[in-house]
Write a structure and sequence with these properties.
By secondary structure, this protein is of the alpha+beta class. The protein contains twelve helices and 13 strands. It folds into two domains: 97 residues, no CATH class; 257 residues, no CATH class. The strands form four sheets. A five-stranded antiparallel beta sheet has the order 11-4-8-7-12, with helices on both faces.
Amino acid sequence: MNATPNSVASLIARAAESDFAAWRRNILRLNGCANPIHLVGQSAFIDPRTGEVLWTHDSQSYGGRLLVACGNRRASVCPACARTYRADTYQLIRAGLVGGKSTPVVVAGRPRVFVTLTAPGFGPVHTRRERNGRQLACRPRRAGERCPHGALVGCHVHHAPDDPRLGEPLCPRCYDYAGAVLWQVHAGALWHRFALELRRELARRADLSRAELGESVRLSYAKVAEYQRRGLIHFHAVVRLDGPGGPGIAPPGWATTTLLTDAIHAAAALVRLAAPGARVIGPRLLRFGAQVDVRIIAEFAMGDLTSGAVAGYIAKYATKGVEAAGAVDGRIHRARDLVLLPVRPHVLRMIATCWWLGGLPDFEPLGLRRWAHMLGYGGHFSTKSRLYSTTLTALRQERADHRAAEQRDALGLGERPVVMAGEWRYAGRGYSPAAALIAASVREGGEHHGA
């Protein structure tokens, strides 16, 4: 916690004011949110039968402004709200594996796998490799062997986890930055084509038409996107087979985990997408990387992966953003801003390539300059099919309803019918120096206790 003399003095002065207790409660209730939203206004509980006002409160009850958590999912922006998002994502993923939250428990017996789809290689980069628990050299090659630009094509170093060279190309001039950026911007489209191709592959293996497959099996999934150190996205997903009516209906006997696993490998290898701009930078045929990992999710703990482990793994990556690749959070508005970006050389080249391509007419529809800070990726980080399980919106509503019920009990309203009416408006965001001290203490306490 960075407590300056001025902030401490400000907190002491604030503690002497009559509304300090309400002001402090307003901050504590956010559980350490780093950048809260300020609202001013008022609301009331009203009996809909008589019109009687049962309870009122306004922003003055909270020291002048009601603070609301920012709700940002990224841990680098707001660790407190990211913890909540991670917990919700965990519940969403787990419900699709073992049931609960309006999802029937019979999904625990469905064919389901944990899939990782990676990006292809666009040039050799420094990496950490292991085999049978033993770390290997980065990229062993014959001593002195060089690329056409004179750079060594091999690396015999056993890189430490924090080695700044990890993810950096062995030769930046050999690395296909245009191809990497175009892959990023089309990664979401590649996933969409993979989902379509997977249905086709399942139909082929079951000797059914696409229409007949839809009458027998429904494909459900939930996925997250994660940045690798080399700056490229890869996808982690839970894929499940249900009957045609959704999770409550069993699929036919031929829809096995083995069939699903084989179909995923085949579908991932078949997906292709021609990138635009071939007349400017040459043809680029986009695809997933050859490394496709498919692991069975066990109904019980003796299998490859348990449901809880998968849910925790996906939830962890749902709160990470481009900072995992060493990039920046905010958008870039001018070319001269590239000079001052605090990023490593490889990331800067990817950002600069986005900016360069984004200024060419052939690539303007892709919005590359808008997503330059994301290294070209502008897709969603967490998505699911409609009937996989519950939704984040439903989980948030359930939490809000629970808090409302607690508030009703505290006010002695019990089961009495009430409606809430009010008006609130935006009045800024962030903390004063004194409030920031309290929020930081809550945040550090939550991290210490693993909240």
